[in-house]
Design goal:
26% strand, nucleotidyltransferase, Elongation Factor Tu (Ef-tu), domain 3, 9 helices, flavoprotein, 7-stranded parallel beta sheet, single chain, elongated, FAD_synthase, 340 residues, riboflavin kinase activity, 6-stranded antiparallel β-barrel, Rossmann fold, alpha/beta, 17 strands, 30% helix
């Protein structure tokens, strides 16, 4: 997949272009259906599918949010776009200048730069200054500028449309299994393993401490079962998200104990896939009680994973980054994750 940073860098195409419009944070089941429609139309007209996304996320520019917000970092989004069959991904910078762009001006710029033949968006898609543009306006402008508009049907789970807001609410409440059903995959935390205080090793359960990208949504404090994936392989894992209250409340830490793993992960990228929540973060009156609970949590991981897999229809996720080429931004392919 080719990555284009900035609409002004969009390369001229010799075949029809089908554009998928949205922010696509999370790439949930609804987003996947929309992109599948765009890819299908591109293949049918023997063209290319170009998916648009924003960086930073518009919400982080328009509002002030003290906690994590992003379901997917830009790197994660681009990887998923490629896995879903997009030919090009266009990253548009959302800033104070762009936010005041009139809706029709934005569409006219899209037409000029991409010569798009079709646009695919969701029924609730809005764009332009003060969110004045919507699917109905897109249809009218399609007639004016010569492109077709297709509206993707929403995807429902348990009778309700899947949305990024629903997923964020579930994660903030610790309902990672529910979030995974809506995403169509386990919710992932990706970062670099950094050195902690070594306490886990002294307790008999050495953990990998993860340095997280800024603005990434971290689920509610608690103990989780999941999968850890790194260059060393894929392992079942017990994940703690918390402040270690037994030793005096400290900063938020994401740490994972990889079952049946012995080795050194310091400085390596690590991805945690959260499948099930075991319980809240607890405070213990003694280190012995804490160690006993850690042992019980580790023993509970395989069963919790099996139950989550049965509920969601998902299994251990494997695979690496998808090959991309980048236009308009001088950076290396597969850049290292950001750290706090």
């Amino acid at each position: 997949m080719e990555v284009i940073h900035g609409l002004e860098n969009f390369p001229r195409q010799r075949v029809p272009v089908v554009v998928a419009l949205g922010t696509f944070d999370g790439l949930h089941l609804g987003h996947q259906a929309l992109l599948a429609l765009a890819v299908q139309r591109a293949r049918e007209v023997q063209g290319r599918c170009a998916v648009f996304t924003f960086d930073p996320h518009p919400h982080t520019v328009l509002t002030v949010s003290p906690d994590g917000f992003l379901l997917t970092t830009l790197d994660e989004r681009l990887e998923l776009f490629a896995m879903l069959g997009a030919d090009l991904a266009v990253v548009v910078q959302f800033n104070d200048t762009f936010r005041y762009t009139p809706a029709e001006t934005w569409v006219r710029e899209l037409v000029t730069r991409t010569a798009m033949a079709e646009v695919v968006c969701g029924a609730n898609y809005v764009f332009g200054h003060d969110r004045s543009g919507d699917a109905a306006l897109l249809r009218r402008l399609g007639g004016k500028y010569g492109f077709q508009v297709r509206i993707a049907d929403p995807v429902e789970v348990d009778g309700a449309p899947v949305s990024s807001t629903w997923i964020r609410d579930a994660l903030r409440a610790g309902r990672v299994t529910e979030a995974s059903r809506l995403l169509g995959r386990w919710y992932a935390l990706r970062g670099t393993v950094v050195r902690g205080d070594g306490r886990g090793r002294t307790l008999g359960y050495p953990t990998a401490n993860l340095s997280m990208p800024p603005r990434k949504l971290i689920p509610a404090l608690g103990i989780y079962a999941g999968y850890a994936r790194s260059a060393a392989g894929e392992y079942q894992t017990a994940v703690s998200i918390g402040v270690r209250p037994t030793f005096g409340q400290g900063p938020l830490v994401v740490e994972a104990y990889l079952l049946q793993f012995a080795g050194d992960l310091y400085g390596m990228p690590l991805e945690l896939h959260l499948a099930a929540r075991l319980h809240d973060e607890l405070m213990f009156s003694s280190v012995e009680d804490l160690v006993h609970q850690i042992g019980a949590d580790v023993a509970a991981v395989p069963r919790a994973l099996a139950e989550a897999e049965e509920l969601t229809g998902l299994g251990p996720r494997a695979g690496g980054l998808v090959e991309q080429t980048t236009v308009g931004k001088p950076e290396t392919r597969n850049p290292k994750p950001e750290t706090r």
